[in-house]
UniProtKB/TrEMBL annotation:
It comes from Aspergillus sclerotiicarbonarius (strain CBS 121057 / IBT 28362). Signal peptide: none annotated. Belongs to the short-chain dehydrogenases/reductases (SDR) family. GO terms for molecular function: oxidoreductase activity. PANTHER family: 3-OXOACYL-(ACYL-CARRIER-PROTEIN) REDUCTASE (AFU_ORTHOLOGUE AFUA_6G11210), DEHYDROGENASE, PUTATIVE (AFU_ORTHOLOGUE AFUA_3G00290)-RELATED. This is Putative 3-hydroxyacyl-CoA dehydrogenase.
């Protein structure tokens, strides 16, 4: 796979940029807030944890603002963007980092004809998938507003957080796995359109095991087994690095293992004729061209800026 190394570009172009992100009070989100601050950005971060969010904001002397946010509530997510936009008149980058793990077992073997009548609790889907879709929809509008120059606008980015569970199976976590597959699918659906219709690049980061509160119960055993573990700051470097490359990052899906990143989309493209078949691959490419150019297709608007 093609390696993505953010180190040479981490400090490029972030000074005075306005960045909105979710999940900023803990883990990868908090590490991203820190890295952006170090690089001179103005950061507006949302999180549902008001205590941790307020404390994190207070630890910075300037340029970092906390807005209590429930990403699964559309009005709450919208308010985060409104606050940032009201202060600076523009937003340059948006990172959808908020996420939760599996909360309940929808497929528990004890389910029977009586218990199946109860509607299951959907918070994993609401936060990890619906919340990300809400965020992306709102970001797509706010990122194209404001007083940035045409040159700056070309580097505006929307970065979504999926997981290794977004392209492999994750036993025991069906909702989390489905949601993270959905986030990767959302990026793939938006990448042909957002650059031309909105002037925004879109990409996704897919971390493997990362040292956050989501994996407290398994972290020790994982490390004893000698398996690779991402540190939050390492994943933050991938996220901020993707924003730094601007439109060159469009369509990338960066898998992060042990702090190192690889673009899985490039590998899939390079081997399509192997896993899809040569003739099938050629037919698919022709079909994509037709869909992008036919007025009767839902994809057609993507070729029309402002359409």
């Amino acid at each position: 796979m093609a390696r993505f190394d953010p180190e040479p570009i981490l400090s490029y172009g972030h000074k005075d940029k306005v960045v909105v992100l979710t999940g900023g009070a803990h883990g990868i989100g908090a590490a991203t807030v820190s890295l952006l601050y170090q690089n001179g950005a103005h950061v507006f971060f949302g999180d549902r944890d008001a205590t941790a969010g307020t404390a994190l904001e207070a630890s910075y002397p300037e340029r970092v603002h906390f807005v209590q946010t429930n990403v699964s509530n559309y009005s709450s997510a919208l308010n985060l963007f409104k606050v940032a936009y009201s202060k600076h008149g523009r937003i340059d980058h948006a990172f959808a980092i908020a996420g939760i793990s599996e909360q309940t077992n929808w497929f528990h073997p004890s389910l029977d004809l009586e218990s199946i009548e109860t509607v299951p609790e959907p918070s994993t889907l609401n936060v990890d998938l619906l919340g990300t879709i809400y965020f992306a929809r709102i970001a797509a509008v706010y990122l194209r507003q404001g007083d940035s120059s045409d040159e700056d606008s070309a580097d505006k980015s929307l970065i979504l957080i999926s997981s290794i569970a977004g392209f492999t199976e994750s036993p025991g976590m069906p909702l989390y796995c489905a949601a993270k597959h959905g986030v990767l699918g959302l990026m793939r659906a938006l990448r042909p359109s957002l650059p031309s219709s909105h002037g925004i690049s879109v990409s996704v980061v897919c971390p493997w095991m990362s040292a956050t509160g989501m994996v407290d119960d398994i972290q020790d055993a994982w490390q004893r087994a000698g398996l690779p573990m991402n540190q939050p700051a390492e994943v933050a470097q991938i996220i901020v690095g993707l924003a730094a490359v601007g439109e060159e990052g469009n369509g990338k899906a960066i898998y992060v293992e042990g702090g190192r990143g690889w673009d899985i989309e490039a590998a899939l493209d390079d081997t399509r004729e192997v896993w899809m078949g040569k003739s099938q691959s050629q037919s698919w490419l022709e079909g994509q061209k037709l869909l992008m150019g036919h007025p009767g297709s839902a994809a057609y608007w993507s070729s029309l800026k402002g359409g």
